[in-house]
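User: What would this chain look like folded?
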Amino acid sequence: MRVKLFCILLAVFCVLALAACSSDSIIPTEPPSITATATQAPETPTPTPAALAVGTRKNPAINSEALIYDGMAALYDNYRLELTVEKVIRGEEAETMVMAGNQFNEPSGEGREYVLVLINVKVLESKDEERVSLSSIDFDFYSAAGVRYDDYVVVTGLEHRFPDVYPADSGQPPAEIKGYAYQIVAADDTPVMVFKDNSDNRLWFGLAGE
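Assistant: Here's the prediction, encoded as structure tokens.
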């Protein structure tokens, strides 16, 4: 009886010993680490400001830069012209030219001076090939501060004036002419000039640098 009990206890001891050994031999495994990869959003390119159209009030044409006036869809002045400022004359030289043209031309006065703008005009097209009539009154002058010069100035006797012109394909010469636009401005001002100020298609010209 004692031998049988001893054998049972020995068997239980062996089972417990084997279980303990198996538990010690198991090495816990850490779960695989997960590395987060940040996905960078694509950069949005900085929009480039649209270039200002040349011939506007904010970006007037500089000297010798041709502009196209298109009035074919307008109620009046149904023609297309190419206009280029060829020369700007001011100060004493302009005064001399004006007074030499006609003794009855008005002197500019103290603190003021004449500005003479020589403009080359090409007639590209006109409604029904009608002749195009231009004069200095088609051009207005604004101060650097944006105030229009409203003085009505008449100058006669200048070498270049605006005759009536015809389209280039009409067979009626000339299709290209030169003429002066003029005004009396403040001597210390840097004015700009606008063609057809009352039109939606008005064109602006800078007059600095001459």
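DSSP finds two helices and seven strands in the chain. If you want, I can go into more detail on any region.
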